[in-house]
UniProtKB/TrEMBL annotation, chains A, B:
Coiled coil: none annotated. One of its GO terms (molecular function) is hydrolase activity. It comes from Streptomyces radicis. Pfam families: NUDIX, WHD_NrtR. Keywords: Hydrolase. This is NUDIX domain-containing protein.
Amino acid sequence: MPYDPSEFPAFAVTVDLVVLTVRRHALCALTVRRGEEPFRGQWALPGGFVRAEEDLASAAARELAEETGLRAQDSDSRPADAHLEQLATYGDPSRDPRMRVVSVAHLALAPDLPAPTAGGDAGGARWMPVSKLLGGQDQASEEGLAFDHARILADGVERARSKIEYSSLATAFCPAEFTVGELRRVYEAVWGVALDPRNFHRKVTGTPGFLVPVGGTTTRQGGRPAQLFRAGGATELNPPMLRPEV
Amino acid sequence: MPYDPSEFPAFAVTVDLVVLTVRRHALCALTVRRGEEPFRGQWALPGGFVRAEEDLASAAARELAEETGLRAQDSDSRPADAHLEQLATYGDPSRDPRMRVVSVAHLALAPDLPAPTAGGDAGGARWMPVSKLLGGQDQASEEGLAFDHARILADGVERARSKIEYSSLATAFCPAEFTVGELRRVYEAVWGVALDPRNFHRKVTGTPGFLVPVGGTTTRQGGRPAQLFRAGGATELNPPMLRPEV
DNA sequence: CTAATAGTGTCTATTAGACACTATGTA
DNA sequence: TACATAGTGTCTAATAGACACTATTAG
């Protein structure tokens, strides 16, 4: 196959973001209101074009910062505000009615933010419960997300749900310092199940390198003061945290 | 951000394939010899441009068929020859010196093929042991793969290694009918470890839906005749097959 | 016979899951 | 006081890993 720049079709390449957080015991995704056709007025995932001299990860980090103010690990060596990873790429020829667009979706996990959104290029932005966005396949069509974003969101949610099983990624949903109970509520919100607090406590505190005690305590959840921890260096969780209802 | 087709940069989009198989107790990848600059004469992963009206998965299946003759599940309802899934997307601005190319890499797992390659658009094609292609970081530079293909291959190998832990994907490396011992040798080759044949047998035959006895036996591995199985419908492997040396 | 692989059984240390109980804060 | 959450201990059923033993072929 000859390699002539004029012989292959030109594509637009975008990054779309599945930004997840846990708010009031519910897994939520960041959505933006579309200001233009097509799908004007509908909710969509945040995203935008990759620039001419920009890496895919950089483009995703830039969009994340524009929409939320969150800093992914990229910039310098300070601890990141959010976890960011590539999710999958969507390139159905008919996914955008205007032109051929290939979207490299990324998954971002962030702690609950005080301000729901910051300035971006989108009109309105909101955290919406994932159950609302994806619940009932038919509901997806009436109030659904634009383009193939429901599919992308579903893939991102499934990635998050499975990845917290065998990694310490759930701590990305927590602030820098958190309690065992708060971490447990993250698992419960993401999986939509109830976990035994005592077994959970034994499991996470017994896994070396997962949690590092930071010294203080807090009563922000009520009840007896709970120890504060920060995420340890361990990224793999072995043996994994098992999702119930197998 | 205005959505004007003339305002965004144009990208070329390709699919690259990490095609893995197990040959003579070694995990091997399909490589093709480059006939043109850049990297002329070096080995590379098979791949090619996505066509104007082609889905990404279709492009990957087409390239796989062109290079190996293998049929992924796409075409019709017959059982597929090979497993094919999207791996990740690589879009560093400098990954191709000629132009901006975004490559959507795919991972294919195939049984050992009698003919190493079939007709394709590449000059020579070979199965090369993964350990040769990736062993010793410095060795990668002298006899290494073109572009960022060493990185792509490493990601694909890691995906395969982790995915056979918790799925029945290892059967994609086996012919339609296989023995427990042959399946065990797949795990041993992919992970590069030795597994206890007795515990392995108990594990796989005790997981419902993983293996379905097909009735016959074979002595193609020598020794006592072994039952033949085919892959069952179960795709998830729960509890997972544990990789030793944790 | 030996050598090879297939397949079953048994023992033990570990652990997930269930749950009783105590500790320490707020209303 | 009642009530919330935090944290520890104990019991049991399941299982991964180690390994003894038998079965059935080829040479």
